Amino acid sequence: MTARSVVTLRNAAAERGGRRLWSGVDLTVTVGEFVAVLGPNGVGKSTLVQVVLGALPLAEGEVRVLDGPAGRANERIGYLPQRRSFDSSLRVRGRDIVRLGLDGHRWGLPLPEWLPGAAARRAAAARVEQVIHLVGASAYADRPVGELSGGEQQRLLIAQALASAPDLLLLDEPLDSLDLPNQAAIAALIAEISRVHRVAVMMVAHDINPVLPHLDTVVYLVPGGSRIGPPHQVITGAALSQLFGTPIEVLTASDGRLVVIGPPERCAVGAGWEP
Amino acid sequence: MTLAAALSWDPVTDLLQMWSFPFMVNAFCAGTIVAVLAGVVGHFMVLRQQSFVGHTLSVIGFPGAAGAVGIGVAASYGYFAFCLGGALVIAALPRTGSGGYSEESAVTGMVQAFALACGFLFVARYKGFLNSITALLFGNFLGITTEQVALLGVVAAIALAVLVVIGRPLAFASIDPDVASARHVPVRALSVAFLVLLGAATAEASQITGTLLVFALLVMPAATAQALSARPVTALALTITIGLIVTWLGLSVAYYAPFPVGFFVTSFAFAGYVGAQMLRHARWQWRTSTTPARASTTRATP
């Protein structure tokens, strides 16, 4: 193997509340690779993110992240949880939100600029400025984050995840609740970060289309199974029909967008499933 | 409460006259300590949207203070014992959802009512020992002893020292608990630690403003400052400044006027908040009227 692996899952299976979500997942994510995690609601896409963060142990199999057990090197992971948005009453600047991603976990208070030993703090401020510029949020980084639009907040949160110069970005539905032009813009931004800065990206997505032109690999999870490979091999009628065990058709629209017809919207597995 | 002191309208003479009484010096020392601690803790409380918990703790303090006076101990000890104890009980309650402690409003409401009722019972039971129930509910700055000032100072110093150590990860855990937790910030432990700090700050504020008016020092300065500035350091400095100004003004006016100190501190703090909101609104209108194209240009950034 020439490319260094960032995340490795071997024969992995996960459970939540005693219910088996997915199993038999073999996945290797390499440096600079852009991976989308797809699947019906409730299949455990966010659970996969929790496994990689080390917040949830595997029920079966093995996971290694950044050359160690999961959870060991989380300071090298930029994590963007699933969320709607910040409360509109939150009176904190976007810049301060980004700064938390750099040193928010450290004890003590940040000292003001004019006190001695300012070089490190100036370097930190410069790093924050750099990632804000990188995501194109300079125009509104000094405004209270609660007043910003969903797309603007999402850019700042990506900047926060990038602040500590991570080797892996874990993004849980970052395009959710954005309008279509913003979905395309954020997807392109994430792809550029992945390509230019050699950051591996694992992104949970509800809809593959905004990220489709940029993807290297698709992980398609279904209850009790998975399919992993390049998008044109996984998002096909034959592959998905086999995966779901029910006829599924994939249509290609004139603009290249894929329309998947027939998969169950939610995966009701047994009686124990709850939303 | 009424002192009926004469106002000479010469600020220096009036201040010297007021501070010639040791109880007024004690009141100012206590007020200063409380304003600083309540301001700093209040800043985080507003950030965490836990005002309701702060209010609950203050109400729990009322039976504590009433009971303490009843058995012949200073009210301070009752406030501290019940507010800190209450904070630990709330911390031990099972949480629903990820939103912290703000959601158990029905349980908290019942606890508040029961605490008020108990306090009322204690006051009625030991009527002979208590000057007035209003002192506990609406504040009293007379008769603060030097020992009480020392106790307030020690508790505030410990609480502020803890906040200096945990301040940054606490802000992270408050604004962004999921990401903070992924970065191994002990979100749950910080949440418990903050509840204890909130208990201490509430107990201190109760002794100046009374149980029902703690928000004058706990919420109003922090909310006013955050309306004026979104920079954390500036907002924190403003919070302390506003807290000190309203406390000092309130104490001075209450010395000369025949009305309780809690009324004045609360009124000044409220006036400050209304003023800050008006200023913010005016600034926002000015900004949108001078740069009408701003919103559309930022959205268009690729």
Write down the CATH class of the domain at 11-214 in chain B. Answer: Mainly Alpha
The oligomeric state is: heterodimer
The gyration radius over C-alpha positions of chain B equals 21 Å
- What kind of sheet is the major sheet of chain B? none
Q: What is the CATH level 1 assignment of the domain at 5-88 and 164-261 in chain A?
A: Alpha Beta
SS field, number of helical segments of chain A: 7
The residue ranges of chain A in which pLDDT falls below 50 over 5 or more consecutive positions are 267-275
Approximate helicity band of chain B: over 70%
Output the CATH topology of the domain at 5-88 and 164-261 in chain A: Rossmann fold
SS class of chain B: mainly alpha
List keywords for this structure.
heterodimer, A: 275 residues, alpha/beta, Rossmann fold, six-stranded mixed β-sheet, four-stranded antiparallel β-sheet, 12 strands, 28% helix, globular, disordered C terminus, B: 302 residues, mainly alpha, ABC transporter involved in vitamin B12 uptake, BtuC, 14 helices, 78% helix
Task: Describe the protein in words.
The complex is a heterodimer of chains A (275) and B (302). With 275 residues, chain A is an alpha/beta fold. Chain A has helices spanning 45-53, 94-103, 118-134, 150-162, 180-196, 231-234, 237-244, and strands at residues 5-16, 19-30, 34-38, 60-65, 68-69, 77-80, 168-172, 200-204, 217-222, 225-229, 249-252, 258-261. Chain A has a domain at 5-88 and 164-261: 3-Layer(aba) Sandwich (Rossmann fold). Chain A is built from seven helices and twelve strands. In chain A, β4 (60-65) and β5 (68-69) form a beta hairpin. In chain A, α4 (150-162) runs parallel beside α5 (180-196). Chain A is globular. Chain A starts with a strand and ends in a 14-residue tail after the last strand. Mean pLDDT of chain A is 86; it is low at 267-275. Chain B has a domain at 11-214: Orthogonal Bundle (ABC transporter involved in vitamin B12 uptake, BtuC), CATH 1.10.3470.10. Helices cover 78% and strands 0% of the residues of chain B. Chain A binds chain B through residues 53, 55, 74-75, 77, 79-81, 83, 86-87, 89-93, 96-97, 100-101, 103-110, 112, 136, 139-140, 142-144, 149, 151-152, 160-161, 185, 188, and chain B through 47, 49, 164-169, 171-172, 175-176, 178-185, 226-227, 229-233, 235, 297-299, 301-302.
